[in-house]
Amino acid sequence: MTQAQVLPRRRSGLFKNPVVLKELRGRMRGARAFAVLAVYLLLMVGFALLLYVLSTASQDVFGFTSGGQIGRTLFTGIVGIQLFLVTFIAPAFTASAISGERERQTYDLLKTTLLPARTLVIGKLFSALAYVFLLLIAAIPLQSIAFLFGGITEVEVILAFVILAVTAITLGATGLYFSATQARTLSANITTYGVTLFITVGLPMLIFIAIALFTSLLGARQADIAAEVQVVLLYGLLALSATNPLVAAFLTQYWLLNKQSATFFYETVTSTMGIIQVPLISPWIVFCVVYLLIALVLVVRTIGRVRRIES
C-alpha cells in the first residue's frame, strides 16, 4: 500500500470547517433526514398529481385545455409548494442552532475549542442550508415533468431554483441571527417565524394594495398623469414587488412571457408627452440583490453577537 493510499483525502473550502463536518454527519447519520426527504417528496408528488387531476377535470368541464397550460399549472404549483415548505423548513434548522447549544449546555464546550465566531456561525448556517438545498435539488425532476406537457422553458426552471435558494439563504440567516440574540429556542422560533410571516404574508398584502392603487391611477386616465410620476410609480412598484419571493417570481414569469427577457426590458408609458420606453430590471435580479444583502448583514451581526457573548 502506497503512502498516497494511506493518507486521507485533503478537504478544501467549507468542508474544513469542523462545525460543518459535525453537523452534517449528525444530521445524515440517522433515519430522520431520509424520512424528512421522503415525506417532502411524497408531498410534492401528491400535490403534483392533485394539480394534474384538477387541470384535466377543468378540461372536461370547460372544454379544450392545451398541454402547455397544464404544464405551466404543474410548474407554478410545484414551485409554490416548494416556496411554502422552504419558508418553514429553512428557519427551523437555524433558529435553534446557537440557542440550542446554550440550552444543552454545550456552548461552553464549543468555546473551549477556540473556534472563531466566524467559523461557528458560517458552519451552522452552511450545514443547515446544505440539507435545504438537498430538498430543492431532489424536487427538480418533479419540476421537469412540466416539460412533457410544454409551456415552460429551462430559464424558468433555473430562475425558480435561484429564487428558492436565495429565499432559503435569507430565511436561514434570519433564524440564525435570532438564535444568537434570543436566550431560548422557543423565543427564537417565535421571533423568526413572526418575521417570516410578515415577509411572506404581510408584504404581499401591501404589494397587492400598491398594485391596485397603481392600476387605478394608470387606468383610463393614464395619459393625464405626468410621465415622471408614472416612472416613479413604476420603479417603486418594481422595488416593492422584489421584496417578496412569491411576488418576485410571479412578476418575473409575467414579464418573461410578455417581454421575452429575464434580465432587462422596456415598459411602455403613455402620457401627455407621448409614448416613453422605460428601462426596467427583472424583479428576480432586484430580489436576489436585496435578499443576499440582508443575509450578509444578518450573518455579520450574528458573528458580532457571538463574539460579544464569548467576551
TrEMBL record:
Signal peptide range in chain numbering: none
Keywords in alphabetical order: Membrane, Transmembrane, Transmembrane helix
PANTHER family: ABC TRANSPORTER PERMEASE, HYPOTHETICAL MEMBRANE PROTEIN, CONSERVED
Protein known as: ABC transporter permease
Domain of life, source organism: Bacteria
Transmembrane intervals: 33-54, 74-97, 157-178, 190-220, 232-256, 276-300
